[in-house]
């Protein structure tokens, strides 16, 4: 699922992937049950000018549970040539990205 919302010069976006979710299988640990596969991305981009200076700002959070892109049948994996399609880190990660670009 993709969601995008623009508010003046700020763009908010999100992506969610759900696969093999079973609410009966759960664990009370902080990470949840490893077989409930999901990945999320939440972010915002902003472009603004101060005098003649142009700034681009990006803030983003990404998370993928273990085995999100794997499947017990190899032909149903989310991969190509044994590489994950969605993210270079594959799965089982949390990532925060902050970028600020400046241009005269």
Summarize the structure.
This protein has 104 residues and is an all-beta fold.
Poorly predicted sequence stretches spanning 5 or more consecutive residues: none
Question: How much helix is in the residues?
Answer: under 10%
Radius of gyration over all CA atoms, rounded: 18 Å
Global mean pLDDT:
83
Q: What general form does the structure show?
A: elongated
Task: Report the oligomer.
Answer: single chain
Largest sheet: 5 strands, antiparallel
- Strand tally is 7
| Lateral arrangement of strands in the main beta sheet | 1-2-3-4-7
What share of the residues does DSSP label as strand, in percent?
over 45%
Distinct helical segment count: 0
Tell me the structural class.
mainly beta
Q: How far apart are the first and last residues' alpha carbons, in Å?
A: 37 Å
Order of helices and strands: EEEEEEE
Number of domains: 1
